[in-house]
Each structure stands twice: as structure tokens, then as C-alpha cells.
Give the backbone structure.
Amino acid sequence: MIKYKSVLLKLSGEALMADQPAGIDTSRLMEYAGRIREAAAMGVRIGIVFGGGNIFRGLKGVDKGFDRVKGDYMGMLATVINGLAIQSALESLGVKARLFTAIRMEPVGEGYSKPRVMEALDRGELVIFAGGTGNPYFTTDTASALRAVEMEAEVLLKGTRVDGVYSADPEKDPAAVKFDALTFDEAYNRNLKVMDMTSFTMCKENNMPIIVFDMNREGELSRVLRGENVGTIVK
């Protein structure tokens, strides 16, 4: 039984580095592609947003003297590289995937259009959203919230390297407590960094639940889609 039949999967660019200092680890890329293929085989409509932090992060560039707007555009281009990588990986596994970019750059990808996205999903294709929102000062978290609402997803899945939302960073604080479920207000009042405030507010206002789970754990994505009690749900 599948609980969620239409989802937006948000993954960090840093996850693609695996143990590398930067760039894309091909083993991790194919690992993720395999898990996404399993989810697609369940009949789930899937949209994907990757961050670009494995290649360039705009805000960090500002600290090094980059203009913020140019830095953000560099970050958007990094997400296009990651989008092409996951598209190629999925297609090598026999999965049809379409890449849509927020900034027009044919023939790299198709310019974003909701009607074309919905047509692709209706045909059983996966859709990959790259280029953020197409505007500086907005994160890929915000882009994932926006695209989740636009593609009429039932839930936004945030795949991370931890198995949910904790009271503190579990990698630094062994006493950190994991939450199974939270409301948006509880997460905000506890100052839990689920997503940045813009994306968090968009999800709240559009009744878009967020599930934070461990993408690196084999089979976890499929368990989330079946509605098993894994990760943390914020709604």
C-alpha cells in the first residue's frame, strides 16, 4: 500500500559528495538513482530538487568577496549540473526523467512550465527542477516548497543524512531527542532548523507537510512512501 502518490523529493547537493571534499561521487549518485527508481516503480509521481552546495554555495561566496546576486546565480548553475547528473543516472537505469530549469537554457533543459511538468508526470516521467526559483536571495529549500505546491504534491520529502528532526544536532549532542511528529508552530517555537523560514512559511500556508528522513539508509524512501513510522513529519 502506498500512502503518498505524489511527492517532491528535496536532496542536498552536499549529499552527492559522499566522502569527497567537493563535486559528485558517482557511487552515491547511482545509489540515489536506484532508490528513486524503486520509488518510481511503486507508481509514485516524483519531482526532484537538488541543492548545489557540493559545487558552489552563494552565501559562502559572499564571505569570500563575491557579489551576492552573482554568487546566487552561480549556485543556481550548480543545481543544473546536479540535475543533469541525476537525470543521466536515472536514464541509465531505464527511468524516464525530464529536466526543467527556472532560467531558460535550452538545450541543457526545458524552461519551467507547470503545464509541461504536469503532462510529464501524467506520462509517468520523473521531473527534475533545477535553477532554484530563478531568482537570487532564494534557497533551493524555497524552490522545493514552491515546486511541491505547483506540482500539487501531497508531501515534501527532505532527504538528509540524519533520520529526522532532533532537539539539537545529533552529530554533536548525544543527548539530542528525535521527534516523530511536530506541528509547524512547534517547530518554529522550538527554533528547529527544518528548512529556511521562507520555505517553511510557504509549506505552512499551503498545508504542505514535510517529512525529514535519512536518504542514505537503504529502503528508507520506500518506507516513507508506504507511510511507515520513519523520519519526522511536520504538518
Summary: The chain has one domain: 6-154+164-234.
